[in-house]
Amino acid sequence: MRRRAGLVLSGAMLFVMAALGNSRVEAQSRCADCHFANPGSTPGNHLSEYDLSAHGRAQIGCERCHGGDPTTFEPSLAHREILNSRNPASPLRRENLPRTCGTCHTGPFVAFQKSRHYELLRSGSQDAPVCTTCHGEVASNLLSPRGLQSQCASCHGEGKRAPRTDYPPEGRMMLEGIRDARALLKEARNFIGRVKDPARRTALEQAAQQAEVPLVEATNAGHAFVYDDLEERLSVARQRIADLFERLANPQSR
After folding, report:
1. Would you say 185 and 215 are in contact if contact means Cβ atoms under 8 Å apart?
2. Structural domain spans, the chain
3. Overall pTM > 0.70
4. What is the pLDDT of residues 34-87, one digit of tens each?
5. Residue 235 class from Cβ within 10 Å (0-12 exposed, 13-18 middle, 19+ buried)?
6. Could you tell me the CA-to-CA distances from 60 to 18, 36, 50, 103 in Å, in that order?
7. 3-state secondary structure of 252
8. Which residues of 100-125 are buried (b: 16+ CB within 10 A; e: fewer)?
9. What are the φ/ψ torsions at residue 56 (nearest 5 degrees)?
10. How confident is the model at residue 140 (pLDDT cuts 50, 70, 90)?
């Protein structure tokens, strides 16, 4: 709080921000604007990682996770009711992070609550992974299959605290399957966009949506770390995508 209270904006910067405040700039951006204007007000690369992330591009404001008032540049008002992450009520406290992320990412949160990892987290374990373990603090990282294998191996690798050497490569394989299926579905949708017959294009778009459903379910099963369910949903998705390509190859089909 001392650092926050000590934030000082130059007269020129205040003038610029006031002008922005009177424009149609989204209120969510004001937290980042103010902290960018005060280098050192946040640790490390926190701001730049946010700015380059999917959250930043979508203008998901800092207050969605941290709290505070994004409509003002007055430090004492902007930081009002923000709780330190050590506070048990803080949305950024480790055991509260899944619920905080789950306010937007409902499917993954519901799935994660079914996992052994969540049980460990609720028991007070400091070793249990949370959302930021795999996705980073603000960058909303999407791990590559090899990245996931490495992350899993940090706990489940040979000689680690919870050795299950079959888990990391299995997780990598499942993520590769989801990634490849999504790439195929994206390619199918590109072809659908070129279909001239409106009725046929609509029918194919609906089929693509039906192929997307088990892919989402497979992703959620991955957040529950139930690989049997993931594999079953992925198998359904692959079959629906294959059927979709078959229909695309046959101009007479709807």
Report:
1. yes
2. 2-78, 167-249
3. yes
4. 888 888 888 878 888 888 888 988 888 899 999 999 988 899 999 988 999 999
5. middle
6. 21, 16, 10, 12
7. coil
8. bbbeebeebbebbbbbebbeebeeee
9. -65, -45
10. confident
